[in-house]
Specification:
This protein has about 120 residues and is an all-beta fold. Strand 9 and strand 10 form a beta hairpin. It starts with a strand and ends with a strand.
């Protein structure tokens, strides 16, 4: 299984970025997909998740109304559209794939997002 994130970079406060995570080696449509982030000196936290069936979504309170998670099962890809970015959104963003009640998670290598003027 391989998850490859892309789309990170440096953006000014108030700007936007779209992260992508391309998956291979798994039946993508069966997996819940999530984005996590980890800032320096802080624990990794869940940012957003999207289920495998019905594509229900949930978000951290800190990103509600600013970030949108979506998936394209035909392309085995999950996206995170980030808008109105704030300096506190600066972190390494990781893609994660798992299935409910199965204690296995797959992680990408992460992509750096820096929000700074």
């Amino acid at each position: 299984v391989q998850l490859v994130e892309s789309g990170g970079g440096l953006v000014q406060p108030g700007g936007s970025l779209r992260l992508s995570c391309a998956a291979s080696g798994l039946t993508f449509s069966n997996y819940r997909m999530s984005w996590y982030r980890q800032a320096p000196g802080k624990e990794r936290e869940l940012v957003a998740a999207i289920t495998s069936v019905g594509s229900s979504t949930n978000y951290a309170d800190s990103v509600k109304g600013r970030f949108t998670i979506s998936r394209d099962d035909a392309k085995n890809t999950v996206y995170l559209q980030m808008s109105s970015l704030k300096p506190e959104d600066t972190a390494v963003y990781y893609c994660c794939a798992d299935r409910p009640w199965i204690p296995v998670q797959y992680w990408g290598q992460g992509t750096q997002v820096t929000v700074s003027s």
